[in-house]
Amino acid sequence: MGSEIITEPTHTAEPSAERSLQLALAAARTASENRGYDIVLLDMREITPIFDYFLVVTGSSRRQLHAISEEIDHTLEDELGDQRMGIEGYNESHWILLDYGTVVIHLFDQETREYYALEDFWNAAVRVPLPELEGLQIDRPMVDELQGDGLQGDGLQGDGGLGLAGESAADAKPVVDEEPGMETA
Known about the structure:
By secondary structure, the chain is of the alpha+beta class. It contains five helices and six strands, in the order H-E-E-H-E-E-E-H-H-E-H.
């Protein structure tokens, strides 16, 4: 038999790994821009051949987890042309898993993240530094401050998904820099 001519380019692991990292970083940035916190990116390539990266993010309410999920989908699918392979937990909203093949994104509420402790379970994975998110990430104390004494229910207290426990939208007052002698409504 003669030799065959290959007309399609062959792909190496390196461009795939670069693409996976590009997707993971874009998802991390999107989560941060949508007020996700405690964002951790784990390099799984030395641990499993199934996927390259785990992104772990915490959200403060059901609405916020949905918004983060939808914005990550928009970024990865519409802007970067990737296709989500699956989604789990969207309706329950304690742990939403977005499967992009080489990148798996885990969006948790605080209690569920602490319970499953994925970073501890996959402690052999290398944490990828996220210096571009340092100024964007919300840390846990700031979220606690916004919510008072912590998460309550699914975060749907009539606050428009802001997680301001105990305040209804009618009770919320806009923050206005007042000049002396000016009154606010």
